Amino acid sequence: MIAPHELKDKVFSRAVRGYNPAEVEEYVDFLLEKYTELYKENASNVQKLNVITAKYDSLASDEESIRTAILKAQKLSEVMVDTARKQADTMLNEAKARVDSLVKEATERVETETTNLETVRSAAKQFRDQICNSYVKHLEFLKSVKIGTLESLLEDMPEPSDIEKAATVGVAASMPDAEEEQKREIALLTDQLDSEE
Fold this sequence. Notes:
mainly alpha
């Protein structure tokens, strides 16, 4: 672009029959003024364009950095999500294994306790049956024994030893009518036997 002072310094040759020099100079001055304004505006626009271009270049490099950072963040988030999923799966599998182990252990304990309970029930039933059988045999024995025989059995009992006497004395002290109690029990048993016959 031509600078305004170059236009101002331009000298034209004079001709005899040309335009009116005053009008031409006035018009040239007007054009020079407008051209100067446009020249200054153009210079200002070039400066603004340079600033904008510099900012754009800066933003473009920042944009590339931002894109790179976003890509890195996306990759990192994918890795973190994948790691978290793997950890969650591992923890879930461990918890399932622990629960399965506890359930298995509890089931085994229940089975063991059930077996033990059945064993105790069976032993209790056998014991009860034995006691009942012994009681029945004892009752049958008592039925078969006659009253006189029972009294003779009591009379035929050997004399107690000194230790037994001392124990009997201690018991007799706490139970003064032990013999009478025995006689009453014998009488009750005989009455029961008589009533059953």
